[in-house]
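Sequence, please.
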């Protein structure tokens, strides 16, 4: 789990004086809960420059600022060696005014990665945390990183995906994989940050859309499960609502109030709980279980295999962004590639499991036809 994004200025309030004590509580607390934290190193420090010390801060070249930055990086890695096992270098360097900053990022990444490995040779390192809707920034920066001999330092490339229709991310990721394979097939992809608001918001990602807490939960599940189908680790953004001072963001698994106190667990909380209880490491998506529904409806589906045995499928309507409607559409669905003995229907939003004895089904030796199966724009499973 990502422990979050901590600005350099928060941890070095005076030149050469590092304030890690407040962060220790969070790192040690997560570890005590069985969570393996990773941390993002990012942003500037007004002690050294006026480049900004939060989102969209400008990157800096070699010189006194870089020297101060590298001292801070080494101090942070030394502090949490053995506790934080992966470090991400910067957050969204390609945001807004920084779209042409890839030469600065390439240099900063290589120098930072070398500093990390100097202190902790076993540390994993993630690059980019990209937020661009295309791959141009990564492509340009990777050429420069490769020229500087920096590719061996990259364990993961992270990206942030915020599109109202979640399945749009699939072709982006497949093309990104091809881009990175030119340099190394051992670099992993990691979805480092994405989520959906639980209400209409006027700032931050996917604003201006009348989301509610049900469309939010559907979005997060759909986005997570397409990543599962591609075998890519996934981060849910965020654990609690973030208080930015000027706004209280509604992305959290837990709704917070303005006093930073929990109010209740959102439907998204239970949806994530359902996903993590079912989609364990012994489960994977496969192509040899096929799902067919009405031709006039766009449906996303994947076969499921557990411990090497086909056990069913997941499916949902994916023609549009998730709605707030709780209505299901009865439809005939054909599943081929396996035979069911005792199939059940699992609603991933609620976690409820239903037998399918009331749904007429016919087995012709090759496929099973489920008549009137309730399908909607939220993931459901048909599994043994």
């Amino acid at each position: 789990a990502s422990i979050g994004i901590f600005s350099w200025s928060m941890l070095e309030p005076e030149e050469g004086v590092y304030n890690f004590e407040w962060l220790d509580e969070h790192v040690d607390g997560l570890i005590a809960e069985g969570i393996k934290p990773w941390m993002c190193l990012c942003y500037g420090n007004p002690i050294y420059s006026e480049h900004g010390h939060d989102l969209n801060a400008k990157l800096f070249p070699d010189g006194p600022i870089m020297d101060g930055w590298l001292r801070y990086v080494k101090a942070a890695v030394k502090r949490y060696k053995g506790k934080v096992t992966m470090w991400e270098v910067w957050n969204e360097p390609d945001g807004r005014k920084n779209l042409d900053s890839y030469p600065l990022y390439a240099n900063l990444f290589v120098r930072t990665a070398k500093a990390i490995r100097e202190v902790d040779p076993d540390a994993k390192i993630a690059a980019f945390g990209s937020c661009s809707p295309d791959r141009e920034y990564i492509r340009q920066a990777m050429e420069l990183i490769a020229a500087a001999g920096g590719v061996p330092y990259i364990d993961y490339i992270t990206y942030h995906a915020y599109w109202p229709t979640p399945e749009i991310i699939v072709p982006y990721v497949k093309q990104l994989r091809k881009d990175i394979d030119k340099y190394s097939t051992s670099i992993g992809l990691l979805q480092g940050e994405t989520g959906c608001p639980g209400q209409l918001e006027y700032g931050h990602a996917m604003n201006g859309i009348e989301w509610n807490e049900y469309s939010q939960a559907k979005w997060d599940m759909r986005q997570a499960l397409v990543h599962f189908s591609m075998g890519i680790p996934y981060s849910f953004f965020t654990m609690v609502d973030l208080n930015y001072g000027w706004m209280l963001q509604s992305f959290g698994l837990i709704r917070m109030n303005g006093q930073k106190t929990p109010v209740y667990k959102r439907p998204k909380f239970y949806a994530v709980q359902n996903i993590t209880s079912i989609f364990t490491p012994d489960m994977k998506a496969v192509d040899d279980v096929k799902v067919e529904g009405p031709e006039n409806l766009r449906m996303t589906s994947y076969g499921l295999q557990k411990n090497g045995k086909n056990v069913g499928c997941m499916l949902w309507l994916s023609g549009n962004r998730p709605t707030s409607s709780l209505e299901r559409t009865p439809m005939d669905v054909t599943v081929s590639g396996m035979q069911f003995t005792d199939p059940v229907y699992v609603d991933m939003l609620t976690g409820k499991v239903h037998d399918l004895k009331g749904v007429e089904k016919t087995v012709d030796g090759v496929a099973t036809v489920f008549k009137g199966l309730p399908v909607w724009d939220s993931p459901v499973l048909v599994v043994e």
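Residues 102-119 form the longest helix (18 residues).
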